[in-house]
Task: structure prediction
Amino acid sequence: MKTTTVHQALYGYSRGHRLLSSSLPIDSDASRILRVATDMSFDGRSRSYLSVFPLPSAKMQAFVRTWPAGNWMRPGAVWSHVVLVGWADLALIEDFRDLLELNRPRRVEDDNDIERFAATCARELTLNMSPRPDPSGISGEHSVDPVSLASAVYSSSRTVSVVSNVPENEEEVLLELFAQQWSRLRRSFAFRTRYRSSETAVRFDVEVVEKGDRVEADPVIRDWAKSLADDLNGRRPALRKFLHTYGAESRRGRRDMSVLVRAQETLASRGAILEAVSSLFFEFPLPNQMRRLKGDILRESGSFDVPEAVRLALAIRFSEHLDLGELEVGSRFVRLILSGSVPAEALDAEFGTDLTAVPESQIEPVLAEIADHLDVDSVVRFATLHQDLGLLVVARRPAFLFNPDVWEALEGESVGDVFASLAAAVQDEILESLLHGGSVDALTLACSASPEAWWRLVDLVSRSGIPAAQIVASAQVLRDTLQRIGLASLSGKISLGTNPRYALTVLLSAPLHAGLWRRVNARDWLKALSSCQSGELRGAPNWVHERLLAVSLVAAIQSGEIALRKRGWQNTFAPLHDALGNEYFDSEAWEVLGAALPSGPTWDRCYRLRRGAVTEIRRDEWGATSTSELIRGAGRQAPDMAELISRRKDMRKSWVRDVLRILGFQ
Result:
């Protein structure tokens, strides 16, 4: 048997109504209240009255039994036996009938009885707190309608007065009503039986009186009050358990009773879960209000039979009223989506799981939690199943964009917009990773969203210090990307590199007819050619060398500087003349070169190159020595080239003789 200790006090007449005895000291505030509340007149049928009220200063609840003193005492004198229950114990009592037995009226016939009674009240009492094995609700005789009483008490903050021929018979109803309440409400609730209403030091919530001062209108009967009446009669034990569990967080007293009753009723019906939650958040909008009830409805291990998908959807929909971090919404959402048990679109359609509607103060922690529970593989699947949420996660965890599969899962312009919003340094890291992986699809989206991204890729390749073969491979990825985004999309601030790697990357990253190679000056092309012939870029395929020769020569020819034109011919003529004799000479290189050379037979590209050289020699008036060195580059066609020079009528005869002599033709 579970018991606790309670205190008691005795009030009665001794040269005035006052405290006669108590088992503990009573502070002045509590003493003032008790002295007034324990003194009352008896004019009706009741043999005793019961008053129950809080003593805030003592953190106790007073249960006062008052009855008339005998005729031998001063007329109008009364005895009041007070049982004082600490608020901590008050919360644990489920049945108050045992407590009521402790302060039944006593026979006091003379001074000896008073002395014995006072001595008894100076000692503590033991109260049985074990619940009755078969709680059956209200069982005694009473005339108060529990439905009307509950409707009146919990529909207003005013004192409710109920008339009864014998108020003493209504004590069980009042005590059951009190037992039905949660602990915080009990500590602020006061009720009594009395002959008639009167002003006192205590504001009573309910008074049952024999004589009403005015005619009370019948209260409007509330549907929720019928549920409370069923509980008072022992037919709704689940309701009382609900009230005691969740009413503990109530801060609005009597007003919350009807709210909680309706919540319990709707939660009991699975089909009304949205109605229940909507009503709950309307009444308790702040996250710290009714935290336990909200959690039991919406957390993963909640007490109510609600599908996990519905719980999450409701938590997101009503996020402004919750602490989503406390509910671990992020990790749960990941598990739900990846389980595939509920299609994401089904949640969106029924409840609206758009995380963009979550308050800014909560969205970051939730998205961080979601991202923390995703790895590279799972984020791809997650993004595929929930595009919008995938974008939000990636925006806050850009590292996921290193994976090309994430770009594919988040296909469309949106993922490009996320990329474009990142810092330039982060973008460069992502671009370099995608480039090395040959991820043309992802790079296409990135370059479409950030017009300067393609040129930054060119710059990244040129800075990387990789060998020629790897530049060729990276440039092919850039070329494939450019083919998809189109030349017209290339814009933004362009970094014009001057190192050979940059020139080679530009050369190979776009078709030569596109003309991007013109962004590199002639001197840099000649440097790149030198690097490919005998420097760090040796080992490039023949077709790459052929393109570099053609572009270097054309850039030099079109430079407008005599010295640069001459150097261009000197560095490219011999290898070009040798390569052009091969029918497999790179077609793009010939397209550019052929457009810059003099016209001639299409089948003899070497002849056109020689004619171009002769034209350049004549125009810039080369010396005999440099001219003869260039002619030697024609190999077996050197005599033919020499003949071309000798046939030029405008050339000085002495100069021609010098050239032919040097070549050994005279």
